[in-house]
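Dig into this one:

. . .
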Amino acid sequence: MKMKKFAALAAATVMSVSALAAASAFGVFATTDAGTNNIVIKDSDTNRVYKAYQIFDQTTAINTISWGNGINGDALLSNLKTSGLNTYMSQFDSAESAADVVKIISDADHWTKEDTAKFAKAAAGCILNDNAVTATEANGEYTINVPNAGYYLVVDATENNGVDKANSALILNVSGTTDVTPKRTKPTLTKQIKHNEYNTWGDVGDNAIGDDVEFKITTTIPSDVSAYDKYTYTVRDQLSEGFTFNDNLTYKYYDADGQEITSVTVDPNKTVGDDSSTTDYKESFFVTFDIKELVKNYPTVAKIETYYSAKLNENAKVAVTAHDSVNNNPNTAYLTYSNNPQDTTGKEKGETPKVTVYDWTFSLVGKKVDEKDEPLAGAKFQLQDRNGAALKLVDISDGENKNVFRLAIGNEAGAIDTIITDATGEFTIKGIDDKTTYKLVETEAPAQYNRADSYEFEFSTSYYPANKLLSIKMLDGTASGTSGSTVKVINQKGGSLPTTGGIGTQIFYGVGGAIVLGAGVLLIVKKRAKND
């Protein structure tokens, strides 16, 4: 074969692989000038490993092509005849030499970009690692100085296990010094929590204990996974002990323009597994997607949104004062994904950074005192919603923490609706939402004291960043509210008339009768004195 014939082969392969773009795990390169045999890869990503293998040699004779020193030619011939290429590839059955193979793959009228990808994979299984030429890195470029002109297979041999990177698929580019740009394709993941008061998605939320908290995980699909025999990725979600997973998952598929393709609710017992890879979280789950199959069913799919909810439970951490970066309830998600087109199993080695969102809940601290700021026992309180309905509470006091309650979850056994203060006059109610109106109502005052007015309030909070409570105050009708989460309820002694029929009324009548009787006696005495 003459040089121009070899150049035609290169040009034909350029067309097919260029159209293929990132779909192939390998780029097949031809060099025709023995004096300038560099292959230069433009890549700013550091510490990558690129290797070149000579598949066909064009230096031994100008009119012949032989197997290069980077390939086991006999093995490649066998591989091409059994590797499952398309029906046109049956012509490989009669191929006996490198020249025969070149004749087939240079037939631009029949050879396709898909054939190029398959040929590259077939060749990759027959390379001779001892004869690889490894690139050197400098100034955002990787230079492979190949010793001889010829046809080369360039492999991205970087080890990307457990990191958010994928191996490259390279585009064919033919020239004396071949400049190529790697094409790497990998997915992304973001996670959000719904802020229930504003109905918006973000990285922070706040709820009452017992609320169902909504989460959304968004994952993108690589633009082209045709280079992979199998491509899977797994959404891995980790819930802290303050959440109980509700076993409800909905998936929404979107195209590149953001248009919803379909929405599917799937039985979690068949699609969700416990993630045993972590011990840091009480509950965790994973969902695995077969991306090749998904793209087959929905060719335009570009993004998946995974929705679920979890209940804020009795183990939730509760904030009291700012600044606080400890008493929050994190929820973390990340993605593991196929990242090496050379791995025919589609094993997941890539891993996105973990994304964490935070949910907050709060405490109300009550202090019952008299007008001298002394604590009062025997006062009865209810925490009511804005409509006056008493909220159910559970006593969670222990040996060190007395008079501590939290909001009940559903129809929880042992729940109460009234708190009675002890000699300390203090009590705490945990698990309160912000931007929600509550009323602290004294339903009965201690003996000889008047009931205090109801205290209506809502918490107002701010965060920066999402895992740090920057401020908390109680909006209670005053101009700027009250800083913190503590309310002091003051009782005054006396000051109101006793009710009719009570013991106080009988005393009142008795004293009045004595006064009248005394006046009568005094009048009689005065009359007698006058007569005398």
User: Anything to note?
Assistant: The longest strand covers residues 301-312. Helices lie at 3-20, 73-82, 98-105, 113-124, 268-271, 291-297, 503-531. Confidence is low (pLDDT under 50) at residues 1-27, 172-176, 267-271, 496-530.
